[in-house]
């Protein structure tokens, strides 16, 4: 799989992840015509995985992307994010910023890829890895996610919306793992397979257990599970904190994702001070 094919497959995998959340979160709304994917899973949180728009057909004009996103999210969420792939969506970014959308993180998140299996990781004494296969495992995964992402300003209800049901973290194309230390859940990761790649999502370690290699342990497990699903490559969007770890593991940057935040601030909107 060359770079262009990898990027295209990775984009489709990201869409598969968003569809997964929309299918498994109670009350979620999905609009998907094969050209533009619009997902709303939580009315109170405007993050890209909860209220996001991603273009699937590069021939769809940017103006239509923005107009349809604004109409879809109107009255549904206080804000939303339009995904901008650095390798494909320069027109969307230009149009969104010109229309009054706000830029989130100018550098964005690196899309990283791993094309080979990793050497097996051995857990330290007292640490076990358990695949999530039942409701108890899902609840432990959720507990890790809530604690791990609190410092990233992800509210608990937003984390709950991403790990809402067992089908979110366990299924024919989904694998998840929880690391336990002395029986307590301390780290987790999941992977979603589609289109010849597997996308790692929601890697997290509770604050009191960081610095012990548990995130790497879970990421390596998820990567191996992704290859086990038949993927030619494993991909992820790295956070600023996670990027150095993934580079050490052998992931390489192939592109970046950025986001434009809406609704737009219309130029004719005037604010009056009292």
Portion in beta strands: 25-35%
Which structural category do the helix and sheet elements fall into? alpha+beta
Second CATH tier, the architecture of the largest domain:
3-Layer(aba) Sandwich
CATH class of the largest domain: Alpha Beta
Shape: globular
Q: In sequence order, what are the helices and strands, one letter per element?
A: HEEEHEHEEHHHEEEHEHE
Rg result: 19 Å
The total count of helices amounts to: 8
- Mind summarizing the main beta sheet? 11 strands, mixed
Mean pLDDT, nearest integer? 94
Helical amount among residues, as a percent range? 25-40%
Q: Could you please describe the fold and organization of this structure?
A:
With 274 residues, this protein is α+β, with helices and mostly antiparallel strands. It has two domains: 3-108 and 257-262, no CATH class; 127-255, Aminopeptidase (3-Layer(aba) Sandwich). Helix content is 33%, strand content 30%. It is built from eight helices and eleven strands. Strand 8 and strand 9 (197-205) form a beta hairpin. Helix 2 (62-73) crosses helix 3 (90-98). The longest helix has 22 residues, at 3-24.
Describe the structure concisely for a colleague:
By secondary structure, this protein is an alpha+beta fold. It has helices at 3-24, 62-73, 90-98, 135-149, 156-162, 166-169, 214-228, 243-249, and strands at residues 29-32, 36-40, 51-55, 80-85, 102-114, 127-131, 174-181, 184-194, 197-205, 233-237, 252-262. It is globular and about 55 Å long.
């Amino acid at each position: 799989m060359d770079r262009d094919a990898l990027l295209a497959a990775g984009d489709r995998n990201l869409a598969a992840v968003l569809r997964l959340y929309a299918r498994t979160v109670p009350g979620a709304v999905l609009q998907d015509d094969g050209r533009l994917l619009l997902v709303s899973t939580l009315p109170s949180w405007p993050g890209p995985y909860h209220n996001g728009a991603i273009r699937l057909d590069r021939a769809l004009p940017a103006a239509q992307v923005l107009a349809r996103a604004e109409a879809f999210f109107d009255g549904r969420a206080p804000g939303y994010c339009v995904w901008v792939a650095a390798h494909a969506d320069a027109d969307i970014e230009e149009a969104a910023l010109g229309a009054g959308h706000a830029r989130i993180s100018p550098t964005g998140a690196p899309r990283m890829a791993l094309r080979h299996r990793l050497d097996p990781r051995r857990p330290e004494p007292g640490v076990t890895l358990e695949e999530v296969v039942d409701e108890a495992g899902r609840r432990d995964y959720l507990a890790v996610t809530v604690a791990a992402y609190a410092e990233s300003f992800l509210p608990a209800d937003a984390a709950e919306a991403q790990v809402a049901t067992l089908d979110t973290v366990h299924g024919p194309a989904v694998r998840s793992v929880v690391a336990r230390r002395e029986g307590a859940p301390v780290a987790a990761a999941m992977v979603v397979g589609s289109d010849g790649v597997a996308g790692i999502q929601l890697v997290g370690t509770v604050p009191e257990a960081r610095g012990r290699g548990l995130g790497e342990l879970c990421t390596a497990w998820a990567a191996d599970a992704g290859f086990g699903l038949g993927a030619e490559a494993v991909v992820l969007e790295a956070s600023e904190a996670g990027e150095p770890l993934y580079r050490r593991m052998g992931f390489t940057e192939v592109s970046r994702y950025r986001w434009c935040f809406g609704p737009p601030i219309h130029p004719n909107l005037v604010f009056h001070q009292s």
